[in-house]
Amino acid sequence: MCACVSLALHYFSMSSPGFRPNREVSLGSRRISQQDKLIADDYKNLLLDNLDDLNLHRLKDLENIRANKIRIAKFYIQKVRERRFNEGELVFGR
Q: pTM above 0.70?
């Protein structure tokens, strides 16, 4: 039994005098129950569709990363002061 379900049963049993905590609650996965009803070709097509969706999500995330890099670069350029040094000057880093 899932830990969250058993914890909920525990708290519910403490607050309800008529509740019997010896009953076990079974929550099955809808995806797994539906998956067993599919034939192999349909299942394969669904998995391939999920891969296409995954590629679209990855491309969208890549565009977001590029936009964030541009935004950070603009901020960096605004905050950095340009310093010029001549040959022979002593330069100490901070």
A: no
